[in-house]
Amino acid sequence: MAARFGLPLRWPLGIAPDALIGRTVQGVGRRGKYLLMSLDEGVLLLHLGMSGRLVFGRELASAGRHDHMDLETTQGTLRLHDPRRFGAVVWTSGLDVPPASTLLHRLGVEPLSDAFEPRAFHAALRLRRAAIKQVLLAGDVVVGVGNIYASEALFEAGIRPTVRADRLSLARVERLHGAIRSVLERAVELGGSTLRDFANPFGETGHFQLDAAVYGRCGQACLQCGTPIRMVRQGQRSTYFCPACQRS
DNA sequence: CTATGGACCTGAATGC
DNA sequence: TGCATTCAGGTCCATA
Questions:
Q1: pLDDT digits over A13-42, tens only?
Q2: Residue A32 Cβ under 7 A from any strand C atom
Q3: Claim to verify: residue A133 and residue A34 sit in the same structural domain
C-alpha cells in the first residue's frame, strides 16, 4: 500500500509516509477507541477523535479540505475525513513499545469482554472519589463509554451522574455494569450514534440518538416518569439525567 | 497517585 | 444580514 497525508492530525505519523509503500495489511483490531491495523511491519493506530470518519472505496472523489489521509491498497482506498483533526494515524513498531504503549497502557477493561466483571468493576470504582460520570468518561477503568453512553447507562442504572464513584454499593455497580453492556450492545446494533453528519464508510448514519432516553433531551419529559430531564456540566461536558429516576 | 481545567480544531447553531 | 458566542461524539497534558 501507499499513503498520502494532508494537514497534520493530533500526532505525527512517526515515520516517513513512503515507508508504507509495499506494506501489507494483515488484520484489523481495536483497543478502546483506537483502531489497530497490523501490517507486515509494524502497526498503524487510527483514532477518529470526535469528528473523524473513514471512507473506503475503489474510486473516491478527489480529496477535499478535510480529507487528511488516503491509504491506497490493492483492494481500494481508505480515506480519513476529519474536520476537527482530533483524530490520529500513528505508526508503531509494536503494541508494547512507544508510541503505542504510551497511548494504550492506561486504558481500562473492554466492556463487552469477560474481563468486565461486576466485582472487579466495584473494586476499581472504590478507589475513585470523582463523580461516577467522569470516572466512566476517563476510560481508565472501563473503555468505550463516551459522553452519550455514560448518560444513557447511568439513567438505565438509576444512578445520579454526580455521585462519587466510591460511594456506590456492589448492588448498584452490578446494575451499572449491566446497563453499560446493554446500552453499548444496543448502540452497536443500531449502528452507533449520529448527532450531526456522522456516517459509516458506506455513508449510512447511526440511529442510536433516536433511541436516547436522556441524552440531548433537556427539558423534555422522562420516558419513565414524565419529570423534565435536566442537564448539568461536568468537566466541560454535558450530562443529562432524570432527577426523579436518578435520585442518588 | 488522583482530580481538575485547558488545550487541540473546525463548523453549525444560537443570540444580539 | 452580520458578527460574536457557544457547543459538539475524545483524550492528552500540565498543574495542584
A1: 999 999 999 999 999 999 999 999 999 999
A2: yes
A3: no
